[in-house]
Structures are given as structure tokens and as C-alpha cells.
Amino acid sequence: MNQVVDRVRKEELARAKKEGKEELVELTNCKQRFILLKNKNKLTEKQKVYLDRLYEINRPIYEAMLLKESFLEVYTYSKVEGAKECLENWIAQALSSGLKAFIELGYKFEEKMPYILNWFTKKISSAISEGFNNKIKRLKRMAYGYKDINYFRLKIHQHCGLLNPRLKTINAT
Questions:
Q1: What is the pLDDT tens value at each position of the chain, 173 positions in all?
Q2: DSSP states of 57-78
Q3: What are the boundaries of each domain within the chain?
Q4: 145-148-151 Cα angle (round to 5)
Q5: Which of 102, 134, 150, 165 gives a 20 to 30 Å CA spacing to 112?
Q6: Model pTM?
């Protein structure tokens, strides 16, 4: 979702540069983009003022932020039926928004709806395995000095929590 909001920001930045709108260029530049990606509840007062001004002068970014925030409502439901209805409403909003990035995302979500709704039936996430995979990828990039595959496996076990050298083991004296 943040990538799509950032795409809208980049499009608006390019349009503002082309049209010579200096205030909008200043408000949408790379230094300020993290305010758009930040959770609205965690903004400082200065960031809130900045965001309010941006909303006043740029309707597409305002709509992108509203769509981003309304999508989070899907995860407030505990039952599949409610989540499905909310997701369908969000997709309809995205498709009618007129924002190219959100229209594309709406079609993707429409395609992937069964997978998204699966969370509400099983409450199982792949986050842990994705985290392990990222740790292994990082280790692989650092592994140029490892002499054999067994040492690499040992490091994987160590970094993924299967082998913690700080814990006392049964065989240790």
C-alpha cells in the first residue's frame, strides 16, 4: 500500500515540477515522503500541519491517503464475511478513484481476494518463514568467507534461533 501511495506522490511531484508549483514540489519531495508513509496516529504536530497543507493543495495525494487509511479497516474484522464486504467496498473505491496506481492495485486485490481473505479463516501468516528466509539471504550475502556448507548451516541455525550459544545446553558442563 505504501508503494502505491509513493507512486501517487511521485506522479504529483513530476506534475508539480512541470507546472512550476514550488510549494507542492517542496511538500512532495523525497525528504517529506516518509510523512505520507507513516501511520497517521504516530505523526508529530509539525508533521500533521504539513500533511493538512498538502491535503489542501493536492487532491490526488489526499485521496491516496484516504484509500490507504480505509484499507486498514479490513483488518478490524474477525469474520470472513465482514472482511470480504469491506474489501469489496475498498476495491470499488480504488477502481473509481481515478488514480492509476490504485486502480491497478484494486484489480490485483480483486484477483488475490481469496488469498487475502484466507487470513480471516485460518489466522495463519507466513511472516515467520519470510523472516527466516530474509535472515538466510543476509547470511548468504555475508558467507563469502565460509569454507564449507556445514558451517553455513550452523550459522543458519544460530541466527534463526535453533541454536543459541547463550543458552545452557544439556550436554554443557
A1: 888 988 988 888 888 888 888 888 787 777 677 777 777 788 888 888 888 888 888 888 888 888 998 898 888 888 899 999 999 999 999 999 999 999 999 999 999 999 888 888 887 778 888 888 888 888 888 877 677 888 888 888 887 776 555 655 555 44
A2: H-HHHHHHHHHHHHHGGGGG--
A3: 2-122, 125-173
A4: 85
A5: 134
A6: 0.68
